[in-house]
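Changelog-adjacent note: as of this version, every example in the card shows the full chain rather than a window. The one below runs 98 residues end to end.
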Amino acid sequence: MAKVWNYISFKNKTNKSSRNYKMEQIANYNLMNNYDYKLYVDIVKNNMDTNSRVELEKLKQDIESGIIDKVVVISLSNINRNLFFLLDFLNFLYDIAC
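Full-length structure tokens:
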């Protein structure tokens, strides 16, 4: 069973039912693919916010430790809409071969 870590962020204005729906979609995707999964969720002020992504930093630490086979992100904008931040994260994944 592959270990798949998932990441999603929500703006703090996103309503709870919308958050729950998206998290349920992620859970269903992982269960249908028989993945052993963990979900990292950040609540941010806006999609450009780089300071309040505590869960993304935890995800990076887990990637570095080698306990993850795959990372699934619903949308690149969930990582960040700041292009430099996003490219830095994607390069990090590439360098680690994750």
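Structural remarks: The mean pLDDT is 88.
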